[in-house]
Amino acid sequence: MRSRVPFYILVSLLVIVGVTMSWFRHAEYGVPWTPGQERQLWEIEARVEFQAIGEPVKVSMAIPQTQHASR
Fold this sequence. Notes:
mainly alpha
């Protein structure tokens, strides 16, 4: 009969990796652990590319003061 020690080591490593990834997502990105828990997160990226042809260019970006969350 083969030893089951490598199997238990593999299962333990997978459990440790899963718990660590879950904790990292919770700590870094604010992902809640329990159902029904809500967090308001906003991440916005903007990228503006243009080629000016010798004339002044003005870029204006603004965020709304109040945001209404949609459900």
